[in-house]
Amino acid sequence: MSESQEPFSYPPIDPINFDLIIVGTALSESVIAAAASAVGKTILHLDPNSFYGSHFASLSLHDLSSYLTSPRSPPAAASASTDSDDVVIDLVHQHICSDAEIASYDESAFLDENSRKFSIDLGGPRALFSADKTIDLLLKSGAAQYLEFKGIDASFVFEANEGLANVPDSRGAIFRDKKLSLREKNQLMRFFKLVQQHLDVTQEEKISEEDMDIPFVSFLEKMKLPPKIKSILLYAIAMVDYDQDNSEICKDLLKTKDGIDCLAQYSSSVGRFPNAPGALLYPIYGEGELPQAFCRRAAVKGCIYVLRMPVVSLLMDKVTGLYKGIRLVSGQDLYSHQLILDPSFTIPSPLTLSASDFPSERLQMLSQRDIKGLVARGICITKSSIKPDVSNCSVVYPPRSLYPEQVTSIKALQIGSNLAVCPAGTFILYFSTLCNDADEGKKLLKAAMNALLTLPVSGNSESILSVQSDSEDTKPIVIWSAFYIQKLITSKFEFISSTPTPDGNLNYNDLLDAAQKLFGQMYPNEEFFPKATPPDDPTDEDDASGLTLDS
Amino acid sequence: MSLRRRTLLKVIVLGDSGVGKTSLMNQYVHKKFSQQYKATIGADFVTKELQIDDRLVTLQIWDTAGQERFQSLGVAFYRGADCCVLVYDVNVMKSFDTLENWHEEFLKQANPPDPRAFPFILLGNKIDIDGGNSRVVSEKKAKDWCASKGNIPYFETSAKEDYNVDAAFLCIAKAALANEHEQDIYFQGIPEAAVPENEQRGGCAC
Q1: Interface predicted TM-score of the whole assembly (ipTM), two decimals
Q2: Is residue A449 part of a domain?
Q3: Nearest chain B Cα to A302, which residue?
Q4: Is A330 in CB contact (< 8 Å) with chain B?
Q5: Are A189 and A264 members of one domain?
Q6: What does the pLDDT look like over A188-228, one tens digit per residue?
Q7: What is the pTM of this model?
Q8: Which of A103, A106, A171, A327 is buried most deeply by CB count within 10 Å?
């Protein structure tokens, strides 16, 4: 309720002691808040932003632009009494996103006027497989009751010189496919049958142990599958990132057993819900709804929520060097047994402390945050779909499909207005790829966009007109675009735990595994979302479970 | 549309901590009142079926789950609301003064297509306290505020004495239902929740 213009007085928080304090409301933090609340921990969950979701938020167009372009200035620490037994260490906030490049080609005031009708994902492209563990977790935790989903209409793979082709993800789809030759259809059918037999416990015929341990790409070659089919299986179904044929560069060489698991998940996702046409689901109003659903779950179990509350310092015990609590921007000190920090926090290195005998080695982990890699993300807004009559779809650009030096695959997702994330008649497209540096990442994304969209030359409206009249068929024109580079930081359980940043995957499985692991390390004797609801909770409706899916 | 499913209406209840939001909901749905105040823990949403004219509607009334205490209700809470119930305590001036903020916050977050036509209802709760001698907000003052917001219906209630609670929620249900009709026309592009086709416990029902 506070407008940023008016002077805001930070409310005092009561109580001041908690089992756990969590800073940041990204998906992982929210899942842990819900899980720890469910087993009776007292939790304070803070976020410096005025919205939920941190790096997983869905924002209006204006909010997204300002989030990406204006690095948040570290809040000035309120000068509080320092006569306590605590050593105060100031936290440094480092934005996990950088190199933001935003362009608007909207000549009218359409985007300005409709800014709030957009709900754009910061961590996109992202979707859920109908049969993946995210769905199970949503149901088990009770978060599903606050959410509604819709099936993604189609999945495409981009093929050099040929454009978009359907991902043949079921027998029916292979049969109907118009781009595959009869020979390719037979090969794919045979392969799917083999995988099915392997997964069927009643069947004797299995893929050999030896084959299960070799790279999936070698196994596919052994099966004599042509490059095109291989590419679809590896990049559009198993969704691996790096070129599997290039062992020098490949950082994620997939083994057959993992490839088979991916295929199994994909095929059990197709048709799991009668009113979802493909394997993927997307939450209505955007991915930012997911962390909010988990936060509400936590709140129902007693977790205290305070948005717009920056944390400025850590409080450490002078003698033991152990974590004791945090200092808020308001100057209030709060204490907890454990602390989870958003991955954008670090502490200054080298540590300059007044107390020279302070055992600071425990803080090394916080000052040395290792960045595992980068993911380039891109967002486009268009007024037409990349595929006529298809509103929501996923696209994968396998390595080398755009240009020979392309070593990573690019994932894309188009979401239309029937998911309530943009005004009628508009579409949001998300792109992402792993990369080594910002230039490489942006080059990849721009190539992917150019293959399907028309990016106008900035500030030159005539070029838009000339492109429109061009013979090159009707590629949607981009009216707004953004590029940014996001650091990949994994979670850590140490003296103070930290959660991971959004990864480069399309789904949430790895992130949720990390959250569950972190929970297990923090509370080794507690169950991750126990099934039974406490009997003293009359308003909790345990029969409300189920996933709401719009047709 | 009524052929597809029973009408589900989302109602959200807003107001300062301690004005009796959870108590009003519990009185309405469970016919229970607890004398002892605790800040809301464990309250999620309650549902109640009722017949309005010839239609069977299910009211899904959402509690703030305590997230209102530090004004930290996320936008998801407001999504798709068919009616917003504002509650204040007639004995606490501040809870009346902040109604303006809650009203404004709702319109900002829920972003309804026509803010002036969106149904709000105001409840002045706890009129039983001290036989009404401790009240600081007069009925006239509350009604004037309602008039200034486009004639919001106003009810004086006591969750403790079960006074006017049913009448207030019936009015809420009717307002929500009327709003849903209008929304359907406006939001033709946005789909409605479909009926679960195969309900199976533990699995997904879609």
Answers
A1: 0.84
A2: no
A3: B41
A4: no
A5: yes
A6: 888 888 888 888 888 877 888 999 999 999 999 998 898 88
A7: 0.89
A8: A327
